[in-house]
Write a structure and sequence with these properties.
single chain, 254 residues, 60s Ribosomal Protein L30, Chain: A, CofE-like fold, 2 domains, five-stranded mixed β-sheet, three-stranded antiparallel β-sheet, 12 strands
Length: 254
Amino acid sequence: MNKIELTALEEIPLINEGDNLVEIILIALEKNKISLNNGDVLVIAQKIISKSEGRYAFLNEINPSPEANELSNKTDKDPRLVQLILNESKEVIRYRKGVIVVENNLGLIHANAGIDRSNIESDNENPRVLLLPLDPDKSAAEIQKEVLKQTQIKIGVIINDSSGRAWRNGIVGIAIGSSGAKVLSDLRGETDLFGNTLEVTEVGIADEIASAASLLMGQGKEGLPVVLVKGMKESSDMNNAKALIRKASEDLFR
């Protein structure tokens, strides 16, 4: 029977800058009495990657530009936060009261450049926010390499984050970083049940895994930032999550 199994790891502590995530995850696997096998995939929440990499910014240290002040007035957002959004972005795509949708420096179309205030310690006098990792594909590759070094087991690693979607309500998990996991399944040229040739079908495998893992991670105080996926075939895919980003020239919604 075809099946995959997803397990959210318990015993993951709150993550601080400089923490060794591989060591923490391997200890959690042991405490959960779960063994790794070749082809397993670890889905790791972006937030703990960013925390371990120290991707914090303090709003009191940000000096808003005239552009940031103007956009702040149009969106009712803190001008310091708007400046951070601009710093982390290539282009502002859309905006309205309360939200700024940008193409961030990673090429992702994200609300507020993926900058987050939830589930982080902060000071009301000097608010602290969390930025996306500088290079989540690199972060995933480093974790995959270290797990292989310590266990001699070849796994895949996906870093997921929550994102909205054009024309749809509700956020879902997407892959923003990946290494050693199947990213895209290109079915073009294959046939369906009735012999029709598939002409445009590509399946975003890494996004589907990331989204499934998000169901277990939750969005609030669940405290389950790592999900182990079993049942996937060992992947030789050399792509990373950047392969999921559609070129602007092919994007019908911009």
